[in-house]
Design goal:
The structure holds 3 protein chains of 3 kinds. Chain A is an all-alpha fold. Chain A is built from 14 helices and no strands. Chain A has 2 domains: about 40 residues; about 210 residues, MetI-like (MetI-like fold), CATH 1.10.3720.10. In chain A, α4 runs antiparallel to α5, α4 crosses α8 and α4 packs antiparallel against α13. In chain B, about 25% of the residues lie in helices and about 30% in strands. Classes of the chains: A mainly alpha, B alpha+beta, C mainly alpha. Chains in contact: A-B, A-C, B-C. The interface between A and C is large, with 101 and 107 residues. Chain A: It is found in: Cell membrane.
Chain lengths: ~300, ~350, ~325
């Protein structure tokens, strides 16, 4: 009885190998081409409004508001007048000041609440810590658009209607949950040994946290600072619903509601107002991106 | 200097029914090097952490220097602990690591300097004081951790497998250093390990633990020669003690591989004889091991390389154990039976 | 003895002095501020939202008079609400399908090495890093009825203006992106894709880099080519992380009102209205808090669903 015998494929000839190598190379060059094409297309799509924004900022009226001129060129020499106008003739500086005030205070409140909470959940809560942490994280998903109507009443009851302080009080309700979650990830990565050693060495638990856990998690704390800062700059709905007088507005709503009005066009200044905020935040965000993502992926991805 | 004592100490982790530490009573002697030896999960580390105040006990009491410290946090116990990881503070220099317990005690700066120099001198790490922990080798880290433990002259040293992060060669010399260090400072030391070589080599006494209980407490020699039950008999010693059923009494007969020798070599009386069916021989340099069976039971015999082996793998030969090396265990409970004459 | 005898003097022992060292005491205490914050500013408003939706509360008359489900009935009876409901679902579903496809491609692109990758990454992330309101403002100006640079390009390409091959509507000098209902809807959709694509991409990218090198090596040794690896290794391993990315996209698109509010203000003739923006116009600008709350509550079931799926994913990753 003849068992079926496995026949090895014949060895390729030199010519065949050379042909395969050529094919492979051609395929790789084609792949590179597609790669650059796709990268360019995505970058253009993402950057289009920003490019147009930046181009606009330095244009003179006579150049910008003539539809027959090529909008991608400076037909008249570029100018800084529009930025000057923004600060001299509008309340932009006030908006910036308000925004920074809110952001700094929100960051402080967030740190004061989220750091102890995250520590408690990772170290002291035992088996419930993780579940409770996820529950708090889910609070981050409750959107402002669901809460802004009743919150406007709460804000009024607190006597904060139409004041930046309403935002200082309300914003931590979404920065604290996400930042607690972010910090839990950081604290989990610090070995328990370190703080236990500090307690053995003669410190109370709070002393051990202060002297070992916090110094070691400085990168995590920085992440939280940047993230709550950025979230504050991003927020629009609450600010729109709670604040109506222009002296109290933040950049997000100030620029879009105050500067956009009127029949006199000043798109250049408007775009300057947006770009001056957008670019620093984008740079800040990029520096901390990987850490934010670790939080967003809920630890499903270990970096 | 202080004696550590625990009474009826029990720890149940919430949710799980079984106790990690199950009503243990044990007392150290003053200045003693006491080893807690057992397999992983036997409760030895939990016991150590309760003594250190890192884990609240479910029941029972802990006494240090005659005072009950059960409900006190670690800082009120005047103890020092060295973790398996050494737990050096990564953001501090070696010097600041060592100074850390002194700062907690609000010691004046000048006195701190003096003590740091003293502890660093004892452990020979003077030249490392300016470094950060990540710039140190494993052995250096261990010494820094010991210096930090030593510097405030604690009542007790608690050591949790401090050698397990070292490579095998470094471990032997570290054992020696550690024991000399302990003799020199003469502070009561409780040392947790799963490594019987460390336990036998360093301990004044060894407490062998299993499943939350202490199986036997005694000097290394006693643990090895007179095991209290079959667990201790097989956990201590490498290869472990052989256990062979005694058909006559329904007991288990235990004997060490080095006492299991060809019957002819032993001569005549005063020995129990067994037919040993040999499967395989293993050369280990200075000695050789014979693997085989007596009846159904797997048995190992050990020969120094200087002794010729009279049997080939595959063959069966008559082997014998001198009666004084034959230990008898209850087959059901595993407990040692009191010695009695064997006919 | 080396340096003095260590003293046995244990610090005075009163366990009550050390209350804050106990996990059972300190734990809840540290958690308290966060819990208070969440209860007061998320929990209470959530309950209030439900109470409002069942009452006739307005900005002028803050008393809660129970009116049953009338607000919900009124909302559903309104044609604009039905348009907003439909829009909310369509915008979310279509944009997230597009994001899923594009994010996979973009993540593959960004996981490769090429010149200028850092710049491309920075640009691609801009829509997410920029405050939404300002990004939307950028689009508003980019799609301006008269000065849109896109219109200029289309004119140069001959797609816009007299004789346009695209049909009669394109024969004017401008496309009027925000004046035609269908174009306005397309615009809102595009802005949502533009805005949620970066987050989905970086989440997928994190997943891609987390695929263990030995799995990739094994696949290479086994002779699996690019597409075979894509179908049999990358996609299956990335599925949970894709789900996470899409869930965020759903939350952010479904509940968003900023894009609509700034780019179209819900127009033309309410054709781009969504639940969130309609709730704002009715509740805050129209002053009918009860109506607004009822409309916003329609967001809730989907959010609960998303939260449940997040929870399942989180549990799954926990056990792995």
């Amino acid at each position: 009885m003849a068992a079926p015998v496995y026949q090895a494929p014949p060895m390729p000839t030199d010519a065949e190998i050379a042909r395969d190598v050529r094919r492979e190379k051609r395929g790789r060059i084609g792949g590179r081409g597609a790669l650059y094409l796709a990268a360019t297309a995505f970058a253009l799509f993402a950057a289009l409004p920003f490019a147009w924004m930046l181009l606009t900022v330095f244009k003179q009226n006579s150049d910008l508001y003539d539809p027959n001129l090529n909008p991608f060129l400076y037909n008249d020499p570029p100018t800084l007048q529009n930025i000057g106008y923004l600060f001299a003739q509008t309340e932009y500086a006030t908006f910036i000041r308000n925004t920074l005030l809110v952001a700094v205070l929100v960051v402080v409140i967030t740190l004061l609440a989220a750091v102890p909470a995250a520590y408690s959940l990772t170290r002291l809560a035992g088996r419930w810590g993780e579940s409770l942490g996820i529950a708090i994280f889910l609070v981050y998903l409750v959107p402002p658009t669901l809460l802004f109507i009743p919150l406007s009443r709460v804000v009024a009851d607190l006597g904060l209607r139409n004041s930046v302080w309403s935002l200082v009080v309300v914003y931590p309700s979404f920065t604290i949950p996400f930042c607690t979650w972010l910090l839990m990830g950081f604290f989990k990565s610090i070995p328990w040994d370190i703080e236990e050693q500090a307690m053995i060495d003669g410190y109370s638990r709070i002393g051990a946290i202060w002297r070992t856990v916090l110094p070691i998690s400085i990168p995590g704390l920085l992440t939280v600072v940047v993230f709550s800062f950025a979230l504050t700059m991003h927020e629009f709905v609450y600010a729109l619903a709670f604040v109506t007088s222009s002296a109290q507005k933040t950049v997000s709503i100030g620029v879009t509601t105050e500067l956009i009005r009127g029949d006199v066009y000043f798109w250049q200044s408007l775009m300057a107002a947006a770009a001056l905020v957008a670019i620093p935040i984008a740079l800040l965000y990029n520096a901390f991106l990987d850490r934010f993502i670790a939080g967003f992926t809920m630890g499903a991805v270990k970096g | 200097m202080a004696v550590v004592e625990v009474r009826g100490l029990t720890k149940r982790f919430d949710g799980t029914g079984a106790a990690a530490v199950d009503g243990i009573d044990i007392a150290s002697r003053d200045g003693e090097f006491l080893v807690l030896l057992g397999p992983s999960g036997c409760g030895k580390t939990t016991l150590l952490r309760m003594i250190g105040g890192l884990e609240p006990p479910t029941a029972g009491d802990i006494l240090i220097g005659g005072r009950v410290v059960t409900d006190l946090p670690p800082r009120a116990r005047q103890i020092a602990m060295v973790f398996q990881s050494y737990a050096l503070y990564p953001h501090m220099s070696v010097k600041d690591n060592i100074a850390f317990p002194l700062k907690a005690a609000n010691m004046p700066k000048a006195a701190q300097q003096e003590r740091i120099a003293w502890a660093a001198g004892i452990l020979g790490i003077d030249h490392l004081l300016g470094r950060k922990p990540r710039q140190l080798s494993g052995g250096q880290r261990q010494r820094v951790a010991l210096a930090r433990a030593l510097v405030r002259e604690p009542n007790v040293f608690l050591l949790d497998e401090p050698l397990s992060n070292l490579d095998a060669q470094r471990r032997a010399s570290a054992r020696d250093e550690l024991q000399q260090f302990q003799r020199r400072v003469a502070t009561t030391t409780i040392y947790v390990t799963h490594d019987q070589v460390e336990a036998m080599g360093m301990g004044d006494r060894i407490a062998v633990m299993e499943q939350g209980h202490i199986r036997q407490l005694g000097p290394p020699q006693e643990i090895y020669d007179e095991p209290a039950d079959t667990f201790v008999a097989t956990f201590v010693g490498s290869p472990p003690m052989n256990l062979v059923p005694d058909p006559a009494a329904g007991d288990l007969l235990g004997f060490r591989p080095e006492h299991f020798q060809p019957a002819a070599a032993d001569g005549v009386n005063g020995a129990a004889r067994f037919p040993f069916h040999v499967h395989r021989m293993e050369y280990l340099g200075a000695e050789r091991l014979l693997y085989g069976e007596v009846g159904e039971a797997k048995v190992i015999a050990r020969f120094p390389v200087t002794v010729p082996i009279p049997v080939e793998p595959g063959a069966t030969a008559e082997f014998a154990v001198p009666l004084r090396h034959l230990k008898r265990f209850d087959a059901k409970t595993g407990l040692r039976r009191p010695a009695r004459s064997v006919s | 003895m080396t340096a003095g005898t260590p003293a046995v003097d244990l610090v005075e022992q009163r366990p009550s002095r050390y209350l804050l060292d106990r996990a059972g005491v300190l734990g809840p205490l540290l958690l308290l501020p966060t819990v208070v914050y969440i209860v007061a500013l998320v929990g209470v408003p959530l309950v209030l939202a439900i109470l409002y939706s069942l009452s006739d509360v307005t900005v002028g008359d803050q008393s809660l008079d129970f009116v049953g489900l009338r607000n919900f009935g009124d909302a559903i009876g309104n044609a604009t609400f039905r348009q907003a409901l439909r829009n909310t679902f369509v915008f979310t579903l279509v944009s997230q399908v597009a994001v899923l496809v594009l994010a996979n491609i973009l993540a593959l692109v960004l996981s490769a090495d090429f010149k200028g990758k850092r710049l491309v990454r920075f640009l691609v992330l801009l829509p997410w890093t920029t405050p939404i309101a300002l990004g939307a403002l950028g689009w508003l100006w980019t799609l301006d009825n008269v000065y849109s640079p896109i219109d200029f390009v289309l004119r140069r390409l001959g797609l816009l203006g007299i004789g346009s091959p695209l049909g009669q509507r394109w024969e004017g000098t401008n496309a009027l992106w925000l004046a035609w209902p269908d174009l306005a809807q397309l615009t809102v959709l595009t802005v949502h894709v533009w805005r949620t694509l970066p987050l989905a991409t970086v989440i997928l990218l994190a997943g891609l880099t987390a695929i263990p090198q030995d799995v990739k090596d094994a696949a290479n040794v086994d002779g699996a080519g690019f597409f075979r690896q894509l179908v049999w290794i990358r996609i299956p391993l990335l599925l949970p992380i894709m789900a996470v990315a899409v869930l965020y996209g759903i939350v952010f698109t479904f509940t968003d009102m900023t894009v609509v509010f700034i780019v179209t203000r819900g127009g033309p003739v309410d054709s781009t209205q969504v639940l969130a923006s309609w709730a704002y116009f009715r509740g805050i600008e129209g002053g009918s808090l009860g109506q607004g709350a009822a409309i916003a509550l329609f967001l809730f079931p989907v959010l609960v669903g998303v939260a449940a799926m997040m929870l399942r994913l989180a549990r799954r990753t926990e056990t792995v």
